[in-house]
Amino acid sequence: MKIEYFLKALCLAAVLWLFASPAEARHANPMCSLSAISDDAQMCRLSPAVSAESCHEMGIGTLQLPDSCLAPGVRTLGALNLFEAACDRGYGPSCVYGAVLIVQRYAGIDQDFTRAHGLASTGCEADDADSCSMLAFFYVNAAGVERNIPAARTALEKACALGSQEGCTMIDNLPAN
């Protein structure tokens, strides 16, 4: 009999959650709070028990939160913090995700090529092909660093060696200087 009451309560909770207004949804979803996202980023930076890949996935999840949950700028900044935490711990895909958010000036993020270059460099060192390709972009376009075609070539060669067809193609399109 107790199980029957538990199942009824569970069904009622599910129905209430489905029909909750956006304001109620904010309180129902624990990720719909800036402090929760900040806590996740802090945990990703400090806790060896949390994998860098998990931090990356939390960043993606934060970007996917609905507008009714958090404003786009808040979501983007929270995701960037999670991507940077995962990048700092050597998870290369997070490095390029963070760099793209910065370069593209997504909601609430200042365009800072030096910061984005640092993320791409860290990702390339962690053997992430996309980070290496992006690092070449910074060197070719003098974005956050001085123009350096030999460094761009090295980054693209590494991207190519890591399996990036785009990196292999871009090597042939590099300017002479």
Automatic annotation (TrEMBL):
Organism of provenance: Alkalicaulis satelles
Protein name: Sel1 repeat family protein
InterPro entries membership: HcpB-like, Sel1-like, TPR-like_helical_dom_sf
Alphabetized UniProt keyword annotations: Repeat, Signal
Signal peptide region: 1-25
Membership in a protein family: Belongs to the hcp beta-lactamase family.
